Amino acid sequence: MAVETLHVHTGLDGFAFPHGFREMGDTRLGAWVRFDRAAGFMGLEALAQTAAMHVRYLCDFDKHAFLLKVKAFDEYQALIPGVRHDIAGELVARTDTTFSYALSMACAGTPVNRGAVLISVRPYDDLFRADRLKAYYRRRFKRVWGQGRP
Length: 150
Fold this sequence. Notes:
Elements: E1 20-24, E2 28-34, H1 42-58, E3 64-75, E4 84-94, E5 98-107, E6 110-122, H2 130-144
């Protein structure tokens, strides 16, 4: 079966989130992001990527993590470019392959959005190769861990 390629053109140089973690526990996480530009989808993207990074951490980076479902998303105000946005999250349930999160984002203490996502994991394979992805996410995590202050 041939793999189709999907090209996404956001107009951004990249959007790997979060930029820093200040808390990382078995069920709780705290992170922050700063948006260069505030495209409408980026708030949800930041929540999902933050949850996925937490799952990778819990699995010791031994599995491929991906967004399975957005269960809910509420936006209260627009993202503010150039300003720190704090993310708080809680792992509310999990199975061997699926992790359910409740997350929220605030800017200077004012709620910006909240959401609930499901992140799933699967073994690395020929498409999602461990030799590339495991090393990449370990390096990325080391860069953002402890970056509690921008």
